[in-house]
Amino acid sequence: MFADAKSYPDTMTLEEARALFFARSGLGSDGGYSARWVRIEMKPFPVYFPNTASRVKSAKLHDLHHLALEYKTDWPGEVEIAGWEIASGCGPHPWAWLLNLGAFAVGMALFPRRLYHAFVRGRRAANLYREGFPETELRTKTVGWLRGRLRIDRADPEVSPRDKIAFAWWCFIAVSYHAAWLIFGLIVFLKGLTLLIPR
What are the backbone dihedrals phi and psi of residue 42, each rounded to the nearest 5 degrees, phi first? Predict the structure, then answer.
């Protein structure tokens, strides 16, 4: 997977790589971790939500996954990282599950091949969500070390029937998740209308 020139070489420390990742992605010097609100570019209007401590904890691990895998922060890249993280498991990180399911659904519609490839890759990988990663080790650990820990420093896996079944299952979960939110929003909207209409 990394035969071509890497944007984040194996020898680079994670601290150096993350700073470069922030700069290339336009996330600010601290990656937006100190911001009060998170902005997601959606059409036709952006979506905002509170930048909670739980979300920041997940984002710090998510960003390390991004740079190790060399997935960008545009929509195709977010779709890929969502597929990879869901397949490898988001552990006790509810923000990661929620946001990844959203990007997963976008990928089903717009970038299905890239989503599928990243998902299969994630099925053979580890990730940082289960054990975490101390900020104090950013200066001493390298990108190559992280790729080894995540088990992504090897050839892409062959697709198995179990991979296909797992992908189909998560497609069903993603569709059901969004359908539930759509129904909930419709109920709230109709309830609001009944309150506004005089009897």
Answer: -125, 155
